[in-house]
Amino acid sequence: MQTMLNLSEDRVARLSSLIDGARSIVIAAHTHPDGDALGSTTALLHYCASRGCPSVSVVLPDTPPASIRFICGEDARILYADQMPEEAAARIAAAELILLADCNAFSRTEGLAPYLSASRAPKVILDHHLNPDEPAFQLVFSDAGMSSASELIYWILLKMKDIDGNPARLPAAAARALMAGMTTDTNNFANSVTPDTLRMAAGLLEAGVDRDAILAQLYQRYRENRVRVMGYLQSENLRLTPEGGAYMIATEDLLQRFDVAEGETEGLVNIPLSIDQVRISLFLKQDKGHFRVSIRSKRGTSAQRLAASRFHGGGHENAAGGKLFFPGDIASPQDAAAYIEQTLKEFLA
Asked: Which runs of consecutive H residues, i.e. helices, occur in 297-348?
């Protein structure tokens, strides 16, 4: 039986009432949206629209990678603030309800944060990360034991009276988005999976979701560039430390050399964990003024603690992320390797 901590009948009823009472709903997620951010927000979009809300919008801080954009499709109700900043701000200002999915605080939406925080509409978190910013929200659904925000939202929607526990009653587009979001955040059932995650997958399959089509879109539609840059990074860039660490660094020059698009290094951080002695793996990707840091670890080693203590980040016990700033944490991008070496030596000692 599903036993999520905060999923009480009265809390679900309150969310249902907020949806029914809003003529305009905005659904947001974190910056650099991943598959779970797209799956969870898209599912909420289609569900709220099915409840008769006159205006429902998804407003995301950035345009997602092309490789996962199929999850949300070509829907005019989904806005990317980096492309349409004024329209994004206007929709947030007009909202009568704000739903924040796959995100524990407005700060993680970066450029959207001032507009979301300033809104006087009721605000709801639907998330699976640690430390939700509860004081800023009227209603919080948060469970770090969930595989994904998509799974959390699946169980919430099943508690709604119109769905009444039957996944087949979900809007088809919502069901498909939830399956895709959960699949990406579990690395195709490789991590963070519980019996409830498998029950969710079974329910969506029985409801008619074509999982094979989702897998084809997720894992068989990349450009040649992805295969070549991933091969190069593993053969020429992968470094192992004596303490059981592994890391790769994708500099700006390397990304330009291979013409790497956003999302084309997704999943690379997991590969070094296949090496017996590796306990934790880091992948650094250069951005403006910082490296984006992805961290994955084996059971018994905390990716979350490393992200929080050394990279201004957070996440889950074995899957986390953060940033390494230059100047700031390091003087220049060339100092990243030395910083990682020392960090792993101290952390894994």
From this structure: 303-310, 336-348
Q: Which of 296, 320, 47, 266 is nearest to 178 (CA)?
A: 47
Please give the domain boundaries of the chain with CATH numbers for all domains: 9-218 (3.90.1640.10), 225-348 (3.10.310.30)
Residue 30 backbone class (left: φ over 0; alpha: ψ -120 to 50; beta: rest)? beta
Cα angle 52-56-62, degrees, rounded to a multiple of 5:
160
Terminal-residue alpha carbon distance, the chain: 40
Residue 112: CB atoms within 10 A of its CB come to 25
Residue that has been written with the tokens 């492309």 in this structure:
83
Which neighbouring-strand residues pair with 248? 283
Work out the pLDDT band at 338, boundaries 50, 70, 90: very high
What percent of the chain has a predicted confidence (pLDDT) above 70?
Answer: 98
319-325 and 314-315 strand pairing? antiparallel
Residue 297: closest CA among 230, 244, 218: 244
pLDDT band at 137 (very low <50, low <70, confident <90, very high): very high
- DSSP letter assigned to residue 299: T
What is the rounded CA–CA span in Å between residue 230 and residue 272?
A: 12
Per-residue exposure over 78-107, b if at least 16 CB sit within 10 Å of its own CB, e if not: bbbbeeeeeebbebbeebbbbbbbbbbbbe
Name the strands in the sheet holding 314-315, side by side, starting at the edge strand that comes first in the sequence: 239-240, 245-250, 280-287, 290-297, 319-325, 314-315
Q: Is the pLDDT of residue 53 over 90?
A: yes
Banded model confidence at residue 1, pLDDT cuts 50, 70, 90: very low
